[in-house]
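User: I'm new to structure prediction. If I give you an amino acid sequence, what do you actually give back? Let's try with this one:
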Amino acid sequence: QVQLVESGGGLVQAGGSLRLSCAASGRTLSRYNMGWFRQAPGKEREFVAGINWRSSYTYYAESVKGRFTISRDNAKNTMYLQMNSAKPEDTAVYYCAADEGSNWYVQVQQERYEYWGQGTQVTVSS
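Assistant: Good question. You get back a string of structure tokens that encode the predicted 3D arrangement of the chain. For your 126 residues, that looks like this:
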């Protein structure tokens, strides 16, 4: 079983940048496809970005495409989400998640992910 801990959240002005990290322990991150999800107040949790275990495939929600970049460093057991050109609508709690599946693609449905971090708050001020 893998444990996930997010960090790097905080307050950023619109147009600014933030980098989130997801550190894994218990098992090597290279076993898993990974994803970032977010949940804004009063809204359902939604998919943001995903990356397969080899970093050969990434997928983004339309709302963040071109602004966010997902990456991973399996040697450091860490995944990242670089957030650029932040918008107030990006304000949410951001969660990282691990999928034990070995597909070359990434899942967008949260039900497909077995392990979750506790979340980190990102607030974008206008």
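You can read the tokens as a compact description of the fold. Here is one thing that stands out. The radius of gyration is 13 Å.
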